[in-house]
Amino acid sequence: MMKRILAMIHARNLEFVRDRSSLAWNLILPVLLVVGLSFAFSGDNKSQYKVAVMADGLAANVEPDPTLHPILNTQYVTFYSVEDQEKTIAKVSRHQVDMLLDLRSGENNYWVNSDAVGGYFMQQLLSASAVPAITKQAVTGKEIRYVDWVVPGILGMNIMFGCLFGVGYVIVRYRKSGYLKRVSATPLSSTEFLIAQIISRLLIVVATTVLVFAGTHYFMNFRVEGSYLDLLLVLVTGTFTLLALGLLIASRVTSEELAGGLLNMLTWPMMLLSGVWFSMEGAHPILQKIADISPLTHMLKAARGIMIDGQSLMELSYHLGVMLVMGLVFIVLGAWMFKWTSD
Question: H/E/C letters for each residue in the chain?
Fold first, then answer.
């Protein structure tokens, strides 16, 4: 069994490596995106401020009632509610949030980083609001550059496309060309074939991602507060889940056009709602619930938790658990639904 699986892995790896244009695209595209976005968003000026609010009876990610304080009526400022004070203060210290307002009974405090442009102007704006009085609590910290935040998103997007199209689209092409029909005549079982496809693509995606990450990190020195081994485990787990999703899509589809449509129908919402380019904090709660269905969302939250917040695997166990459960469900359903031919 292992000999057959290893032989299929070797064949699939050779097929990928010999396709030099595809290999080059997988390496060059994320590098170009990281470099381009780092220059495009390297300025310190911000067109909009972001303020987190805590108040009695206010659930997370709900727009605060403007009657709580006069400043909440300010235009061109994003106000959103939070429940975790400690995590939000950490974001204020890193310039990710311009201010935290604590309007709960008996509190009336605010946290601001005066070294941040947004924090300074929000403090001046708050000072102009005479009532109710709010006590300043100063915090300090190093700014999170946009490139520090967006790198996991770009690499995650590249992984998503590499997994879904690298397994889903390829298997459909195999089926349509008759390759799977010939493979079915060999001693290789469908389970062995699928295992080989997933392992092969897993090795390729992880290797190219590590190479791109190391290269861009060397030149741009983006922030990594946590463990590189933990980050690698998140990479492997997320890649496995996305590969299993691609397998599920390709399990019975016989048309390349239909496969392309289904894969695009999955990838674009995931790319827009999973936090690839911008944070979903402060977004509508329904959009956040939809985003949580995506495995890419959990992969990026775990990666940013390690890189920006220095979190451990124990703190990220929820995201890792969700990805593993999703991956196992996808692969079981995909193997059960899989068919060799288009008949």
Answer: CHHHHHHHHHHHHHHHHHCHHHHHHHHHHHHHHHHHHHHHCCCCCCCCEEEEEECCCCCCCCCCCHHHCHHHHCCCEEEEECCCHHHHHHHHHCCCCCEEEECCCCCCEEEECCCCHHHHHHHHHHHCCCCCCCEEEECCCCCCCHHHHHHHHHHHHHHHHHHHHHHHHHHHHHHHHCHHHHHHCCCCCHHHHHHHHHHHHHHHHHHHHHHHHHHHHHHHCCCCCCCHHHHHHHHHHHHHHHHHHHHHHHCCCCCHHHHHHHHHHHHHHHHHHCCCCCCCCCCCHHHHHHHCCCHHHHHHHHHHHHHCCCCCCCCCHHHHHHHHHHHHHHHHHHHHHCCCCCC
